[in-house]
Here is the input.
Amino acid sequence: MNSPDKANRIAAWIEEHRDEMIAALREQLRIPSKEGPPSEGAPFGAECRRALDHALAVAQSGGLRTRDLGGYAGHAEFGDGKELVMALGHLDVVPEGEGWKFDPYGAQIDDGYIYARGAVDDKGPTYAALFAARAIKELGLPIRRRVRVVFGCNEESGFRCVKHYFEQEEAPTYGFAPDAEWPLIYAEKGVANITFSQRLEQGSVLRIASLQSGERPNIVPDRAVAVLVGSDTDLQVAARKLAEYWDRNVTASLRPDGICVEAVGKAAHASTPFLGDSAATRILRALHSLELPNDGPWVEALFRASDPAGTGLGIHGRDEIVGDLTSNLGILRLQDGVVTALFNIRYPVEWSGDSLIERVSHFVQASGFQVETLTDSKPLHMPLDREPVRSILAVLEEEFGEPQTPKTLGGGTYARAVPNTVAVGTHWPGDGVAHEPNERYAISSYLRAAKVYARILLQLAG
Here is the structure.
């Protein structure tokens, strides 16, 4: 285990570099690194490219060896030896959404917190790991394995970054992803994205001309908009019904091109959809109340299917390791006569993507929808008596001064895609929530995380 002297030296180094660490993180947080149109050297868009360039520059300024893998990912490394210890973080972020008290890319400091999209998920923890590695290097602490910090650019929307990375780079002897809850995550649910589609009948009666809700599968939609068209009489009747509709989060306005219906909800991470308020569900419920002649059946089917337990899709279930399955209707579109619905599903470790398809077959047969696409990230289950779980737990029990109980996770981290790797915690009470407005990271949490990550890296490498 790390000696008290080493832990104290690490803590002192972090405090001495406090201003540098804060400045570097704030510069990174000002980069709106949402996935964008690809280009040469920037497979996930110009802003993700810029975020990676910044991380590599910060690493180089600290004397670390760096490598850029075509904009998919990069790393910073020091030390010698055949074996490798790795921390894997990501620099891409989800869209900012609405309801922020500060500019989501302003990195405003208020009452000891840095406010920004990506502050907690995952730029803050990633930079904490980067400076943790620098601390070990500059203090000259003894290690027998190389230490590497990996910067991914596509964690939020597909993991193509780590897939590309490990086609060219070695897997770690031991690794951790600073992107979860304390102390560590030993099991992660499987994550599947299933897209259903249906071509609709066109007619002259009152119908939905367009519908849009959600930007990413892994976020509960906080806004939905639909446009109804039809005869003047039908539109007047529908407008009166919507004006009397009970849900004050749903509003409607009569315009020259039809009725515009809007719903407002609350964003949340798709791993905990019950903590959000789906605008997609709200607008489907409102549209269902209109008893639309042609659109009624598919609207009702999707409304019932949108419950977060997966009951309406016929996939509700659980296991004793990670608990209940969750489902999030993350993206809903009606365009050019075709309705598509993308569900982000977090399923038990004892299931598979194929078993999900079997379970949704009844919904498909009854609703008229067909499965358009399926992507599947298999579950993770790391036994508690294996490394690196044992060593990380030992460090954290010493750091926190009490026994630590490993947890399971509904979200997906890099740990599921990398051998011998688990996810560890990033934040403490008071810090913001990933994927929600006003995401924030306490400066004290950022510095403390760097100290903890340095101790973990030192233990795994030494």
User: Anything to note?
Assistant: The longest strand covers residues 190-199. The radius of gyration is 24 Å. The CA atoms of residues 175 and 421 lie 4 Å apart.
